[in-house]
Design goal:
heterodimer, A: mainly alpha, 81% helix, B: mainly alpha
Amino acid sequence: MHAAVTEINHKKAASRVMPGFNLSLGFTVFYLGLIVLIPLSAVFLKTFTMTWDAFWATVTSERVVASYKLSFGASLLGATINVVFGGIVAWVLVRYRFPGKKLIDALVDLPFALPTAVAGIALTALYSSNGWLGRYLEPLGIKVAFTPLGVIVALTFIGLPFVVRTVQPVLEDVERELEEAAASLGATRLQTFLRVVLPTILPALLTGFALAFARATGEYGSVIFIAGNMPMVSEITPLFIVTKLEQYDYAGATAIAVVMLLASFTLLLTINLLQAWVRNRGRAKKV
Amino acid sequence: MRVLLIGIALLFLTLFLFVPLLAVFAEALKKGWDTYVAAIIEPDAWSAIKLTLLTAVIAVPLNLVFGVAAAWSIAKFEFRGKNILLTLIDLPFSVSPVISGLIYVLIFGAQGWIGPWLRDHDIKILFAVPGIVLATVFVTFPFVARELIPLMQSQGNEEEEAALVLGASGWKTFWHVTLPNIKWGLLYGVILCNARAMGEFGAVSVVSGHIRGETNTIPLQVEILYNEYNFSAAFAVASLLALLALVTLALKSFIEWRLHETTPQPSRQEH
């Protein structure tokens, strides 16, 4: 009893003791406002200077809609490729031992560290008709560079670490006993995977997918070199914003930016919910 | 099954990671070592290198100070609206690089909020160094904060409280108790922040104006050379950034190993 009271008093005293709350929070909010919130609000305020009709006409013009389709479609495909192969990479890195594993594990983060412009020109050089890969693909009738396929390749590259890095820790925590139990009860390997492993890593897979997708929709640097940037065919939405800016059509650029921002904020919300799901799964399992 | 899965994983990583990385160096050295060196010491490339270093030297410390302040307030205190603050700090990661540049055009541009005022007072922000620094600060904003917040939350307040009860001042407690505890996490954030600051392309491209020898950073110089079909020079300059990426990954692995040694903490996630 006495100990409990001193404990409480101690806690109260301590929370009063810790200094710097006003200073640190004040600076945090000030800097956040100055660098992020005020500039971002400019996008929305600028669109309010447009009439609704002008805004709607800009964001639904034929060429812009074609760019949404490409940006979202290629991002979806890239993220899907990463779910499949990123899932396999995560599995292999967690479950198996093989020479060079540590090095490979470290290099998975390369797309985070390699500047996007460098990735863009490297991929273009590889897949152009005389490149290391392009020279073998082109005789087969597969053109990658300067086509929508190139956009998918670039977006797969930049999204690669997300699925691996979200699935890896979850897979490390999976209790192998459950799989062994399932196997000893007569489940086949496929059944064990589908009924035991997949449900555990599903939230992480979805989170990785959403992160890769969100990153891909806004990506610019790695795509513009390989895409060829033909209107209606291989022009991504971020490039469209740049094109409008170069024509000094600030209102038009901003209108498309608003559409993209709304899409990213929706994705951010989805990702937050997915991550809460992953955490709850982890907690429920431990209880 | 095992061999098959390892085979698929390695094939995928080879095709999408190792071959592109190798291609950068192969293309850079295609015309020999002398051409390579000449491309890097060429005056425009050299001024791009200096501008990139200058940008990182300003942007990284700014976000470092912010990261420490944000982590201190969020990890050491309880207050309402903390979750909203956390989401807002991450916001720049979910904004397209192009939009990160656009917002500064809308403020400082000729038709922007304070563009006319700046023009009357002969202050250049857009299409000049300050704009490049600002856009870089924006895109690298969350890096240090997002590393430090979970680390400081997991460490709790006990050690600081002990120092304070024993009569140490707030600053002294920070320098001698908190800082040694978070130094590896801090370094981790700084390294990631620096890699992005030096390699940012989209945001900087929108605000730079692409003035050769003046407002071109290394990634922008790569683009210009590439668009002029000067491929070996483009790849030579790009290889500097690829080397930076490899050094970043090596340091990152080293720090992860140190963090693992010093604090047994839950597995890290990043994005």
